[in-house]
């Protein structure tokens, strides 16, 4: 703490008295005050003078304490306004009140108050200068060549990366990207796709049903077991020709292991037009797989069964000597066209469905499907 400057010099033949009055005398509650370095002296004449001189002393102590403590220009300016402010400054008020006092009081208090004002002004000025210098020094210490703090950026999840890549490839082949609801009805998920209730094919999809009361079977709600229901929804509201892909989340009620999750992702594909053929499908899917994996990827088409296609296919790619199944597909079944009131005599189409996790596992050599959902940073950071 800085020490106040020289004591206030008192001119004239005043009776000398140290000015520390008891708090009771000042009508205040007891509080600790630092003894002023320079004493304001006063006569014993007149209560006004006595109180004012005491106030001056106290004010001086406080003002210099605040000046010493100020660590910033703003705090210092606050102290200036508090004591010397034109309107409400404590010292200003004392000085202003003098004019209503008798000449004797004015002569006693006035000069001391003016000296104190000058002292506070000087103290402020010195401290302002000091803070300014400190500020300049501080900015001179700024090393603009120092490397900045690195901001850690997040990045996309491997499933999002592969989804984006797949969307990009199909967009390049003139497919549109659409999405559908994750909560579906029995009708869209099964019936309309030629999978009637009690059909053994329903066993292929172990389903999460939503609990509902008094609802007809076909309206019962479930978590979609595949993205194929969007084939129906899209055809109900659009006219061919078109070609779409439908990426999205699907759910299966099954045991989790390295290659099965209860929640995973698929991309559905559907192309419908007057003369869409299996040859078109072979070309598009081979092109897609080559762009996704590698120009030399070997692709195999093998007959299979899905209720909503005829014929049905499974597509494999060769990976390290082994054939690996990557998607199901086929020519859209006439009953599916019936369900959406397309005439199967005039329109043909192919459909396919692939698992996003499976694609990412192949592309990034991920051994276990559960890794996608564990949120282990050691895994995620690698993408
Ligand atoms: N929806 C089928 C599944 O989840 C996959 C599939 C197979 C989709 C054949 C198709 C298709 O569009 O034609 O197993």
List the helices and strands and how they pair.
Elements: H1 47-69, H2 73-84, H3 90-97, H4 103-140, H5 158-172, E1 176-177, E2 183-185, H6 186-189, E3 221-223, H7 229-237, E4 242-251, E5 263-273, H8 278-292, E6 299-304, E7 309-319, E8 322-332, H9 334-339, E9 348-355, H10 356-364, H11 377-380
Parallel strand pairs: 1-4
Antiparallel strand pairs: 2-3, 4-5, 5-9, 6-7, 7-8, 8-9
Bound molecules: 3,4-dihydroxyphenylalanine.
Structural features, described:
The chain is an alpha+beta fold and 383 residues long. It has two domains: 7-30 and 40-140, no CATH class; 158-380, Bira Bifunctional Protein, Domain 2 (BirA Bifunctional Protein, domain 2, 2-Layer Sandwich), CATH 3.30.930. It is built from eleven helices and nine strands. It has helices at 47-69, 73-84, 90-97, 103-140, 158-172, 186-189, 229-237, 278-292, 334-339, 356-364, 377-380, and strands at residues 176-177, 183-185, 221-223, 242-251, 263-273, 299-304, 309-319, 322-332, 348-355. The strands form two sheets. It has a seven-stranded mixed sheet. It has a two-stranded antiparallel ribbon with strand order 2-3. α5 (158-172) packs across α10 (356-364). The two termini are 57 Å apart. Mean pLDDT is 87; it is low at 1-40. Bound molecules: 3,4-dihydroxyphenylalanine (DAH). The site of 3,4-dihydroxyphenylalanine has 11 residues, from β8 and β9.
């Amino acid at each position: 703490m800085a020490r106040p400057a020289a004591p206030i010099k008192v001119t004239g033949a005043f009776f000398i008295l140290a000015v520390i009055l008891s708090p009771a005398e000042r009508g205040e509650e007891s509080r600790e005050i630092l003894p002023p370095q320079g004493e304001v002296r006063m006569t014993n004449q007149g209560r006004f003078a006595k109180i004012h001189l005491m106030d001056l002393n106290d004010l001086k102590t406080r003002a210099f304490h605040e000046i010493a403590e100020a660590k910033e220009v703003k705090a210092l300016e606050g102290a200036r306004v508090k004591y010397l402010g034109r309107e409400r400054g404590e010292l200003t008020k004392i000085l202003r009140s003098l004019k209503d006092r008798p000449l004797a009081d004015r002569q006693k208090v006035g000069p001391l108050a003016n000296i104190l004002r000058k002292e506070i002004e000087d103290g402020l000025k010195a401290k302002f200068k000091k803070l300014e210098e400190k500020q300049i020094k501080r900015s001179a210490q700024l090393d603009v060549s120092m490397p900045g703090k690195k901001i850690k950026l997040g990045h996309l999840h491997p499933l999002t990366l592969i989804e984006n890549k797949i969307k990009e490839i199909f967009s390049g082949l003139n497919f549109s990207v659409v999405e559908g609801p994750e909560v579906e009805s029995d009708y869209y998920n099964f019936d309309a796709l030629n999978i009637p209730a009690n059909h053994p094919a329903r066993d292929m999809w172990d389903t999460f049903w939503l609990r509902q009361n008094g609802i007809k079977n076909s309206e019962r709600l479930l978590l979609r077991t595949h993205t194929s229901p969007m084939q129906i929804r899209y055809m109900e509201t659009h006219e061919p020709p078109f070609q779409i892909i439908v990426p999205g989340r699907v759910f299966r009620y099954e045991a989790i292991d390295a290659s099965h999750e209860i929640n995973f992702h698929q991309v559905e594909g559907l192309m419908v037009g007057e003369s869409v053929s299996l040859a078109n499908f072979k070309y598009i899917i081979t092109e897609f797989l080559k762009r996704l994996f590698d120009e030399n990827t070997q692709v195999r088409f093998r007959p299979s069964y899905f209720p909503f296609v005829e014929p049905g296919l499974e597509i494999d790619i060769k990976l390290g000597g082994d054939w690996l199944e990557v998607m199901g597909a086929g020519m859209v079944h006439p009953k599916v066209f019936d369900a959406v009131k397309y005439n199967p005599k005039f329109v043909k189409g192919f459909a396919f469905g692939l698992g996003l996790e499976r694609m990412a596992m192949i592309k990034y050599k991920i051994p276990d499907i559960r890794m996608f959902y564990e949120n282990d940073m050691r895994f995620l950071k690698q993408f």
